Amino acid sequence: MAPSYLSIALIVLGEAFASQLPLFETSSLSQTHLTAKELISSKSLQDRIHVDNLLERANTLYSIAQLGEDEYNHPTRVIGSKGHLGTIDYIYSTIAQLGDYYTLSNQSFPAVVGNVFESRLVLGSEVPQSAIAMSLTPPTKKKQPVFGPLALVSNFGCDASDYLDLTSKIALISRGDCPFGTKSSLAGRAGAIAAVIYNNEKGALGGTLGTPSPDHIATFSISDSDAALYIKKLKDGEEVQASAYIDAIVESIETTNIIAQTKEGDPENCVMLGGHSDSVTEGPGINDDGSGSLTLLEVATQLVNYRVNNCVRFAWWAGEEEGLLGSDYYVSVLSPEENLKIRLFMDYDMLASPNFAYQVYNATNSLNPVGSEELRDLYTEFYTSKGLNFTYIPFDGRSDYDAFIKHGIPGGGIATGAEGVKTEKERQVFGGVAGDWYDPCYHQLCDDVGNVNLTAWELNTKLVAHSVATYARSFDGYPKRTGIEATAVLDVPLSKYHGPKLQV
Ligand code: DTR
Ligand code: ZN
Ligand code: ZN
């Protein structure tokens, strides 16, 4: 039998042999060229991961972030910017150039974005240094300073009964018990012209008002210490004059998730992974989350050399920094049937922090969708097999796994740290600098190509390749899906975070 028939016959014998066969080119048969691909294997895919390719992609992404300079005066890939549009184009075209291995789609959705151009708060005769205009805050009236007496709101300001008539006053409200947006709305309904939310924990606050409301008013946050003097004065019956000024815009824009799914592989049993394509306004986001997005791109590029038994679905989310907008939207429009096809979701957000720790989401099946624990253990076994340490981090609602685990889909992921501080013990096992942030350039202009640790990035990309290959090859032994109900209980109060910004 001519070799070409033999080789084709061998291919159709199925996986039992094909995975042991070397790659071979068959001779033409009735003009059909069959190139037999080996079945995906973790080691083989990992061996195709090289840091030079990642670094080249990082340089490309930085150049794309520079497209945002004319509008923002610095590189950025924030949603709505030319830097983000360029990122989406780069991802889409890279996958499209791989031929017809993937079904490629873009999912557009409406996203609310805010920008604070200028703000100033004066309490009495002081300018509190901790004052921050909250994300998605509306401007003060006519974008001009407003003046009025400060009024202390009772309790946590979570009920209308906590508010007296605040007409022409500036509300001073404690953090706690309900989202910042609720406080702003209630203050607005009581007639306040601005609101100041003070921290009930030590330190400055920050945060977002979340989904805009017509009742929202211009809202600042300040630290507990900056508020203390004025709380005392007001409780002592003294009058405190204040002024607030915010020039801001809140608007709805269309933005786009990119989804790429292998055409091969069981479409009823998909392994899904994601990273976010956007950065914050402040900088190019090469680590956050260029590292995750580019890792996905590189793994997707190398995966085309293999056959898969289960489908692999890559997602690049838009609007993560605004509050997980893209992954929230994606999960919200999944039908129950489509939801059940996703066997697990792996979140890859910040894989290369310069002062890294190898961090694994500490999911447990008792608190999270069944299967989250098995995914967690895949990560920890990988690090251990390399003689490496790792630490656990909580499911705190700060990244794109949130919508998945809240809708019954097993989730997990790895990270290398953001504004958390590296401990001495972590320095001993990971190196770096104790007492510094894991990523000292987190959400800053300096999150550029020099802000990635290449050793951590290459290793974590090999781990991502391992996670893809493992499940693309087989779900044997992995828990079946049990339903789409929310079975996740986050390690922190449910509403404290939803995305990188605090909302409570
Ligand atoms: N990557 C961050 C969000 C994030 C996810 N997990 C953590 C843990 C600690 C701090 C931040 C985060 C971002 O997109 O800003
Ligand atoms: Zn991120
Ligand atoms: Zn971020």
UniProtKB/TrEMBL annotation:
Signal peptide: 1-18
EC number(s) from the headed UniProt entry: 3.4.-.-
Cofactor needs: Zn(2+)
SUPFAM superfamilies: PA domain (SSF52025), Zn-dependent exopeptidases (SSF53187)
Occurrences of domain PA (ranges): 146-228
Domain Peptidase M28: 257-466
Gene Ontology BP, a term: proteolysis
Coiled coil regions, renumbered to chain: none
UniProt keyword list: Aminopeptidase, Hydrolase, Metal-binding, Metalloprotease, Protease, Signal, Zinc
Record-level Gene Ontology MF annotations: aminopeptidase activity; metal ion binding; metalloexopeptidase activity
Family statement: Belongs to the peptidase M28 family. M28A subfamily.
Name of the featured protein: Peptide hydrolase
